[in-house]
Amino acid sequence: MGSDTPWYQLESGDAISMLARMGYASRGLVYLLIGGLAALAACGQGGQAEGSRGALQSLLGAPFGKVLLGIIALGLLSYSMWRAIQALKDADHHGKSAKGLAIRGGLLVSAVTHTLLAFYAVSLMFRLSGSAGQGEGSSGLVSWLFQQPLGRWGIGLVGLAIIGAGLAHVIKGVKAKFDKHFRMPSAVQVWAYPVCRFGLVVRGVVFVMVGCFFLMAAYQISPGEAGGTEEVFNTLRAQVFGQWLLGLVAAGLFAFGIYSVLASIYRRINPVL
Questions:
Q1: Which of 1, 97, 102, 231 sits most deeply, having the most CB atoms within 10 A of its CB?
Q2: What is the pLDDT of residues 121-165, one digit of tens each?
């Protein structure tokens, strides 16, 4: 379809491709914010390093912050829709093997989490009740799960799933498995691939740590033990050479943001309808 075709006349595949690319770009902006704020904190130029919700909240003080939040929220919803299509329609051809179904299940979980993040961005725009409590995300989810039948086991499974996703990110980065989904000029690959690999590995390590927090919460029956990216930052800061570790992870998450933006431009999108 020609580039001058109006958006309302796009074919379904073109529309899905547009949603996916907008989604990858929005995820990239969120991680660029997370990594940038964490880097400032590591250098002593900012406050406490924040996770995804804190990064979004930081936009409230920026010029046209609510407009930016609205754009990111729309992009995150688009990304959630693309993740759901990947999972349910098997757009990347993972298949129905145990490994393939596990990957598709992870994509579906990603769709849910990014939908929640999009609604959080909307709540910030309109200053809805409870929007300031960005630190309660993981522990609030765990508290709810504890109230369900077999909730403790459910929390443990969530932790294992997050660890599995983290290890998959590390492997994807080390082996550059993202290459099969990219159509990128060689001149760009020279600098982009090292950045992408570094970003994926660091994000994978962060996921593994978050998964361990969930396992600890399940083992100790304590919702407060669960945590997200912000708790990872706090844990790293408390270690020997904590500022250096925080700076390294900040750089990695910033690199993952670049990877996501590159995906919005160069990734092959294969909508399956």
A1: 231
A2: 888 888 754 444 444 555 566 666 667 766 678 788 888 888 888
Residues 245-272 have pLDDT tens digits of 999 999 999 999 999 999 999 998 876 6
**Dihedral sign for Cα atoms in the order 93, 98, 102, 104:** positive
Question: What's the CA gap between 34 and 30, in Å, rounded?
Answer: 6
Measured between alpha carbons, how far is residue 41 from residues 49, 50, 238, 240, 255 in Å?
6, 9, 13, 16, 17
Query: Measured between alpha carbons, how far is 189 from 172 in angstroms, rounded to an integer?
Result: 16
One-letter amino acid of 192: A
The chain-wide mean pLDDT, for the chain, equals 82
What's the rounded Cα separation, in Å, for the pair 199 and 187?
A: 19
Would residue 202 be called left, alpha or beta, if left means φ above 0 and alpha means ψ between -120 and 50 degrees? alpha
CB of 161 within 8 A of CB of 109?
yes
Structure tokens at 35: 């990594």
Q: What is the phi/psi pair of residue 228, to 5°?
A: -115, -150
Rounded to a whole number of angstroms, the CA Rg of the chain reads: 19
